[in-house]
Amino acid sequence: MVDAGDSPAAADGERRDSFGWMALGLAGIHALLGFLLYEPTLFPGGDNAGYMILGEALRSGEGYRDLYLPGAPLHAKYPPGLPILLAGLGWFGGVQLFKAAMLVCTSATVWVTARVGRALIGTGPALVAAGLLALNPTLLEYGHYVLSEAPFVLFVMLAVLATRRDDGVGTALAIAAAAAAFATRTAGLTVLVALPVAWAIRRDFRRAAIGGVAALAIMLGWGLYQGAAAPEQASYLEELVLVDPYNPAAGSVGLAGLVVRAAGNLWEYGSRVIPQTLIGAEGPPSTAIVALGLLFALVALLGWARRARDGLGVAEVFVLLYVGLIAVWPDVWTDRRFLLPAVPLLGIFAVGYLASLPERVPEPIRRLAPLALLLLVAGPALWWTAGRVPERLECLALYRTGSPCDTPALASLYAAASWARENTAEDAIIVNRKPRLFWWYARRQGDLYPYSPDPAVVLGAMDRMGADYVVVDQVSGTTARFLIPAIQSAADRFEPVYEGGNPPTFVFRLHPPSANAE
């Protein structure tokens, strides 16, 4: 009698079971590293506070509003996906629960990447690709930032995974995941569009029609809301063609300018951003770092091209659209944050190419190439992680004792915000460089000063805002460049009421202009 355990079906089942456990193990490794690198303080950019404020507005029943701005207007820039998630989580906890949810998202992404990889490039290579992602310093960092990257990359990969089911359920799940990606970040339009395009290329016109109608309805619905809620607000498309989105006065670029920008951005991504993303490289890239980035980009491109030659699927179309989008995005945003959503699939393409090298390549090289890539990237990535664990654990210990390890300039700003919460009227309007973060600590409305070298423009904007106070911080050089000259030009209108921190942050009371002022 033949033992059932020796049958091919039993062997396949064992391989499936072992793959599932190994994929789960890689997700667990990522979660463990994420915990060791955990940073309880708020990301200093401000977008995180913006998402949390929108979540609080939804949870409190005030609507999708920017509570930090004077008048609390409707918000129309970020789609509501992440704020809705934070609104729900906010019933059970605060910032630390939000951060834990981000780590759950990135850990789940590792597991989903293994599943997608197994469908696209096979079991062994899929585990290598998922292993690369599990150790990825950038994914680990965004595992504790309350930003849209963690859920966005998860929804993208879930959409790709769902398309492996060639039935109505798979279609519905893929469209739902793509819709969730778009609801999390506007750049999700790339995966929304990738679904019907890929289905049409494969001559599955019924699914292409369903996906196209769904994508059009979702994008049209969000566009109509934006137009009704904030018709004066610049769209991402309008920002895309600006020379510098932080200085609209610099004008926009033409078609030739976009081509030049794309070429420059692609070089920056290949030579600098990719190695930063893969191994945490910092500072000016060395020759070896540039070589690593360009090598990975080349291998991923070859892997994409090989798969595209056999037929463009959702994964290939999404990467094409998404990389094209970030290539023409303003170069001030050429950063790991924008590359991250493509990293899981780029890793799958790269490992897949190395795992299927032509037969003319010696067999030992063909067998070891994927592992060589894993070791080439994993060594520096783990070194980066090991170098930061002690300081992160120390930061966590300080946080538990009530001494957050923010940078001195931010700690000084937050102290001023806490002072404002205790010493100003609830309806006071306070101009400052980080209005969303400031509101989170002060619960006082306010906005950013204009980036204008003309003091009259800065003062006029503050007066129209109805500002009662102005904060002079050391967080950004724009304060010295634009705000301080405006204060100096009308010194009699500014009364110092607070000074604290090291470096010091100042708060000035802003008096109305005199009756005889010009």
What is the gist of this entry?
It contains 21 helices and four strands. It has 518 residues and is mainly alpha-helical.
Question: What is the assembly state of the chains in this entry?
Answer: single chain
Low-confidence segments = 1-11
Main sheet: strands, sense, barrel: 4 strands, mixed
Helical residues, percent: 55-70%
- Biggest sheet strand order reads 1-2-4-3
How much is the radius of gyration in Å?
A: 25 Å
Query: What is the general shape?
Result: globular
- The assigned structural class equals mainly alpha
Count of extended strands:
4
Mean of all residue-level pLDDT scores: 91
Helix and strand pattern: HHHHHHHHHHHHHHHHHHEHHEHEE
How much beta, percentage-wise? under 5%
Give the distance, in angstroms, between the N- and C-terminal Cα atoms.
103 Å
Q: Enumerate how many helices there are, as a single number.
A: 21
